[in-house]
Structure formats: structure tokens, C-alpha cells
Design a protein that fits this description.
Shape: elongated
Distance between the termini: 164 Å
Structural class: alpha/beta
Number of helices: 10
Radius of gyration: 63 Å
Order of helices and strands: HEEEHEHEHHEHEEHHHH
Number of strands: 8
Length: 417
């Protein structure tokens, strides 16, 4: 950190706070006193807190984490942009868009849209091949996006640190950082609440000179940390590595030679032992082959016998099933025959009843035959009613009728007797 004395703080107006009626009680520990109705900030605490913030930013930049500069006041916009560009950090200097951190996916889409407008416009911004009206509309949209998202065009993910120049105005950014757990380095005046700020820098947040001093310190910390980060990523020169490689190669060659010598000695020992064992081992080989053949034959015989036994068991089971089925069929036949015999025995006792029924039916038939004969005594009136006109009858027909009536009378007399 560059040497900053109390004189530079006083010249920049860091010690000036707000009126006593606008103060926040949580800032009481950072207030030195009151002069002309205005709070005076304790610059000793400001210096110590700024050093702590400087060290933290430097360490984080050495790990590759860069802060996001936030300052949207009109008198601070230019300073924030210059300091952020100097250290290569992203910045927001026009307006904090709601959800810039919590809804960063949609912000990335709008950044991509802005880049497409820039590509269509070209380097000159002439919009070649585009209608004048469309070009004007596109230029308006591009300018609008450039103002709010121009400093975040290269930010690919949510930042790891936030540096806020006025925590009282940028409360939305402070709340989003608290939700996501992002550490905040913030300048707090006497009217601010320092509870949500991780690294508080008590001081004047309205003076451009004071804000330029804070931003300069943070940007220098980022630059120093990034320099360390680049040095750590640079590879060591190849001259240092070559001797180690040669030594490794020499060691590997010597090890290979020793291994080859050991292998050769073992092979020679094995050959000598093999030559000694060969004549005595010829006969056992033949015996072993015979024994293997015998074992194979025995295995085959065992398999055959097992298969035969299995087939015999299956046949026995099928035969037993057939016998059981035949027995059940015979038993069913016997039961049916016994039932029929019992029914035949009972049938003769029932026959007389059928004879009596037959006699009764004959009697009823005779009675029915007698009833019509009695009814015929009455003269047939229906025939006379139906015939409206007189019918001429031949003498032969009359003779037949008289003969039939006589025969009927004879039969009636016989029946009455």
C-alpha cells in the first residue's frame, strides 16, 4: 500500500461526516467528535480499516479473484470507471440493475444482446445494410445497454468481492451480496448502517477526492495481487528441468540393464534344470496322458449312467401317473354302475302307480266323451242364426240327415241303458 498520511486524508476531506440529526447510531464508534453541527470521523480508524481492506483485496487478487466496483453517483461515475479500467476490474457506474447478482443469467442474455448490436453496427457504427429507422432503434437500445452494462461486458460469472463507494445509496447491491454471501468492502459515512458490511471504511462518501483516494488504494491492491497471480502461473524455465530429465534417463538405463542381467541369469538356471529333469520326466508324461484318458472315459461313463438313471426316473413317474389315472377312472365307473343298479331296483315299486294313473286317465277321458253327447240333445240354434238366407237342400241330403239323426238317437238310448 502506498504511504497515505493523515494530511492526505484531511486534504481530501475524508473526515467530514453528515449533520448530527442525520447520523446512524451504529456509526458512533467511528465518530471522533462534533464541529459546527457536523460529525467528524476518526481518521485513525479509517487508516487502519483501509489497510485491512487493501491486504484482503491483494490476497484475493493473487488467487485470481477480482472485485466489482460499484458507484452510481454522478460526481463519482468517472472516477469509478477510470480506476476499474486501470486494474482491469468490472464496474457499475450508471444504475444498479435489480437482480444483477441474484439473477445473473438474464443479465448475461442482455449482455449478449448488446454485443450483437455492436457487431451489427460495426467499428464505425454505420450499420451497413440496415434501414435507417431500424439502425436508429438499434442504436438507442445499444446505448441504453452500454450505459448500464458496459462495465460488466466481460464478467462471466458472479463476482467474488464487491467494493461499494456509498453503502447508503447502494443498499440494493448490499442486500444481493448478503444473500449470495459475497464479501463487501464498503465506504460508510455517518448516515450509513455498517452492520452488513464485511470490511468497513469509515469516511466521507460524497467528496470525489475522498472516493478517488479509496478507489486508488483498492485498484493498486488488485494490480499487485494480479501480478503475483501471473508470476505463480508462469512455468519455470526448461533449462532447470533438462538435467533432472537426463539423470532420470541415466538411472532408468542402469536399472534396465540390471533387470536384463537378472532375467538372463534366471533363464540359464531354468534351462540347466530342465535338461537334468527331461530324461526322467519322459515316462511320467505318457503315464499322465493315460491317466487323463482314463479319467475322461470314467467321466463320460458317469455322465451316461446319470442320464440313463434320470430317463428311468422320468419313465417311472409317467407310468405311475398313468396307473393312478386308470385307477381313478375304474373307481368312477364302479360308482356309476352302483348308482344305476340302485335306481333299477327302485323302479318296479313305482310301476303300479303308473298303472293307476293310466286307469284314472281312461276314466276322465270317458267322462269327457259322455259330456258332449248330453249337450247334443239341445237343438242347434247357432246354425239358424248364422244363415240369413234360406238354403235349398236336395232330397238325398235330407235322407242322409234323417238316417244320421236316427242313428244318434239309437246310440243315446244304448248309452242311457
Amino acid at each position: 500500500m502506498a504511504v497515505i498520511s493523515m494530511k492526505t486524508f484531511l486534504e481530501a476531506g475524508v473526515h467530514f461526516g453528515h449533520q448530527t440529526k442525520r447520523w446512524h447510531p451504529n456509526m458512533a464508534q467511528y465518530i471522533y467528535g462534533i464541529k459546527n453541527g457536523v460529525h467528524v470521523i476518526d481518521l485513525r480508524q479509517t487508516l487502519s480499516k483501509l489497510k485491512v481492506a487493501y491486504e484482503y483485496v491483494k490476497v484475493s487478487a493473487a488467487e485470481g479473484r477480482v472485485p466489482l466496483f460499484v458507484g452510481t453517483k454522478t460526481q463519482i461515475q468517472r472516477i469509478v470507471k477510470e480506476e476499474a479500467d486501470r486494474c482491469g476490474s468490472p464496474y457499475i457506474n450508471f444504475r444498479w440493475l435489480g437482480g444483477l447478482l441474484t439473477n445473473f443469467g438474464t443479465v448475461k442474455q442482455s449482455i449478449a444482446r448488446m454485443k450483437t448490436f455492436e457487431e451489427i453496427a460495426g467499428e464505425d457504427g454505420s450499420y451497413e445494410g440496415v434501414i435507417k429507422k431500424e439502425a436508429l432503434m438499434m442504436e438507442r437500445k445499444r446505448v441504453k445497454l452500454e450505459r448500464s452494462l458496459g462495465g460488466v461486458r466481460n464478467m462471466k460469472s458472479v463476482p467474488s468481492i464487491l467494493f461499494i463507494t456509498d453503502c447508503h445509496k447502494e443498499q440494493l447491491a448490499l442486500k444481493e451480496a448478503q444473500k449470495l454471501g459475497i464479501p463487501v468492502i464498503g465506504v460508510a459515512d455517518t448516515n450509513c448502517d455498517p452492520t452488513g458490511i464485511d470490511f468497513v471504511i469509515p469516511g466521507n462518501d460524497d467528496s470525489p477526492r475522498a472516493v478517488a483516494l479509496y478507489a486508488n488504494v483498492i485498484s493498486t491492491a488488485v494490480m499487485e495481487g494480479l501480478a503475483e497471480y501471473k508470476q505463480s502461473r508462469i512455468q519455470t524455465p526448461p533449462v532447470d528441468k533438462s538435467p533432472a530429465k537426463k539423470l532420470k534417463s541415466k538411472a532408468s538405463v542402469s536399472d534396465k540393464k540390471e533387470v536384463d542381467a537378472d532375467v538372463k541369469s534366471q533363464q540359464t538356471d531354468l534351462k540347466e534344470t530342465a535338461t537334468e529333469i527331461k530324461p526322467s520326466a519322459k515316462k511320467p508324461k505318457g503315464k499322465a496322458e493315460d491317466s487323463d484318458k482314463k479319467e475322461n472315459a470314467d467321466d463320460k461313463q458317469k455322465q451316461q449312467t446319470e442320464s440313463k438313471e434320470k430317463s428311468a426316473e422320468i419313465k417311472a413317474e409317467t407310468d405311475a401317473k398313468k396307473v393312478a389315472e386308470e385307477k381313478t377312472a375304474a373307481e368312477e365307473k364302479k360308482v356309476a354302475e352302483e348308482k344305476t343298479a340302485a335306481e333299477e331296483k327302485k323302479a318296479p315299486a313305482v310301476k303300479p302307480k303308473s298303472k293307476l294313473k293310466a286307469k284314472a286317465s281312461v276314466k276322465t277321458a270317458e267322462a269327457k266323451a259322455e259330456k258332449p253327447t248330453l249337450k247334443t240333445k239341445k237343438p242347434p240354434k247357432k246354425e239358424a242364426v248364422k244363415t240369413d238366407k234360406p238354403v235349398e237342400i236336395s232330397p238325398a241330403a235330407e235322407a242322409k240327415k234323417t238316417a244320421s239323426t236316427k242313428a244318434k238317437k239309437v246310440e243315446e238310448t244304448e248309452t242311457e241303458k
